[in-house]
Write the C-alpha cells for this entry.
Amino acid sequence: MPEQARDRTRGPLAELVLARVRELTREPEAVFWVFIFPILLAAILALAFRSRPPEALPVAVMAGPHGEARLAALSARPDLKPRLLTAAEARQALGRGQVVLAVSPDDPPIYTYDPTQPDSRAARLAADAALQRAAGRTDAFTPGHAELTEPGTRYVDFLVPGLLGMNLMGTGMWGIGFSLVVARQGNLLKRLVASPARRSHILGAQLLSRLIFLVPEAGALLLFAWLVLGVPVRGSLLLLIGVSLLGALAFSGLGLLTAARPRTIEGASGIMNLVMVPMWIFSGIFFSTARFPAVMQPFVQALPLTALNNALRAVMLEGAGPVPLLSELALLAAWGAISFVVALKVFRWQ
Amino acid sequence: MALPVQTPESALRCRSLVKRYGDVVAVAGLDLEVRRGECFGMLGPNGAGKTTAVEIFEGLRSPDSGDVEVLGDHWRRDGLALRRRLGIQLQETKFPDKLRVREVLSLFRSFYPRGLAIAEALTLVALEEKADAQVRTLSGGQKQRLSLACALIGEPELLFLDEPTTGLDPQSRHQTWEIVEGLKARGRTVLLTTHYMEEAARLCDRVAILDHGKVIALGTPRELVASLGAEHVVEFTVDEAASGALTAEVLAALPSVEGVTREGGRWRLTVREVHRAVPALLGALAERGATPTELATHHASLEDVFMALTGRRLRDA
C-alpha cells in the first residue's frame, strides 16, 4: 500500500527525538529560557559592568586659612573632585558617604578617611601627593602608564564563558529532568515501556534532543558575545564545541539522575535546586572561584560546573589546547558517566 | 514453567497468581484463561485487583508467585518480541500536549515492525478530523480514542483495555463500545477490565467477576445472570415503624421468589415472574400493616449477580 509506505519513514529513535524536539519548539517558555534568557542576561550584565573612565573621587576641604590654596591644588588633579565645606558640613558629608576624604584646616593637615574603603584610601594618596607637591616636594621620576582595556581581560569576557556553562547546566538538568518527570506523572513512560519501544531509545532520545538544542543555544550566546560584546574565542572553535558537548552530556547525566525517582514535578524541582544552587554560587559563574578560602577549594573544584567553566574560560580567553584541560575534561566525563550508570540502575519507569 | 500442554486456542492463561503490596493482597490466587478470538471481561469493584492482574499480564509488574502465559510465551527480560504482538491501553495515559494526533500515532507506529497506516488507525477510532489537532485540544473521549488507536496500531493479536470508558460521558462511552464491537467482529482477542456491568454485558463473550483478588464467578453474561435462577429483581423499602414484622423467611416463602437479600432498610428479591411476586408481596405487606415507601423492578443484571455473591454493590463496594 503506498499509504503505508509513506507513513513508515523513520525509526523509533528518530521518532522519539522528533517528538521531543517538536514539544520543545512548540513551548514558547522553553524557547525563551533556552535561547533568549542567556543573551538577555549577558547583555544586561555587560551594560552594568561596562568599562567606564574612572570617576573623580569626591573629597572635602575644610574652610580655613589654607582652604582656597588647597582647593586649587586638589582641583588640579583629574582624579579628585574637591569641595570647600565647613568642618561640620565636611563631617556630615563623610558620614553620608558623599565625600570619601576630608582635609582639615590645620597645618600640616589631618586626613579623615576610611582605610577599609579602596576609594577612600586612593583619595588619601592622591590628595597627599597633590598637597605635598604644592608645598614644594618634587617627584624623583615621572612613570609611564599602560591601561588594561583590551578584549579578553574585561569583566564581560570573564562572564560570558560562565553564562555559557550555567546555561548548559540549566537546560541539561531541566530539559531532561522536567520532561521525564512529566512523562512519568502522566503514565506516558509506563505506556512507552508497555509498547515495544526500547528503554535505551526512550532515554537516548532525551540526550540526543539535548545535543540538537545545544547547537542553537550555545551558538546564539557565543555569536551575540562575539559580535556585540567583542568577547574573543582565542582557542580552537572545535575544542570549544567539544568542551560544550561534554558539558551538556555531563549535565544531561545529572538531569537523568535527579529525574530517576521523583513522581512529581515538585519533588523533582526540590532535588534540582539542591543540585544546582551550590553550583550557581560556588562554580565561578559571576566571580572567580579563587575568592573562596582554601579549605573550600577541594569541594569547589570538584563541582562539574567549576570544571566546565574553567575549561570554557581557558579555551575562550587563554586559547588553551586540549592538554592543559585534561583534568577538567576527565572530571566532567566522570560526573556524566557515573550519573548515567546510577540513573539507569535506579530509574523508576512507572 | 510446568503448565499443562497449551491448547492452541488459548491467548492468555494464568495459574495461582498472587501479588501483595505490603499487607494488602491485591491478587489472591487468580486462575484465568482467555481464548483466542473472544472478548473476555474482568468485572469487579475498584480495588478488586483487576488492574494489578492486567499489569502482570502486560509484563509491567511481576507476580509474587504463580505463572502467566501470554500468546504461548512467558515474560522475560524486556520481552520486546512479545510486546510487538500486544496492544495495551492503560487506565490513563497523558500524551504530550503539544504533539498532534498524527504525530503521536506515527511515534507509536514506529515501535512495531508491521501495523496499520496512520490513516487506517484514525478511521478505526473516528479521529480523522482531529489528525492535525494538538493533543491538548482533544476532549476526554477523543484522548481515550487516541490511546485506543495507539494500542491498535501494531495490529495486535491480543488487546488489553484497562477500564476503557471510566470517566467518559455516555456518548463517548457508546462510541468506544462501537469501536470494540467492530474489533470483535473482526475476530480480535480482547481482554478488558471494567466496573460497569452494562459494559461487560454488552461487549464480553465471557466475564470473570472479581472480588478481593479472586474470581468469584465465571461464564457468559447470560449464564451468570441465569445462575441467579430468576430473571427479575424487585427492590422495595417500607416505613420504619412496620419493618420489624418483616423477615427474610416470610419473603422467601412468597410465590416465584428465588432469593432475598437486605441492604440497610432496602430489600431485594430475585423473582422468576414479576406479575406473580409483586401482588403477593403487596398482600404480605398489607397483612403486616407495612406500607411500601419505594418499589421498583428491573431485569436481573451482572450487578445483581455481584450483589447476590457479595452482598455489596459493584460501584460503591
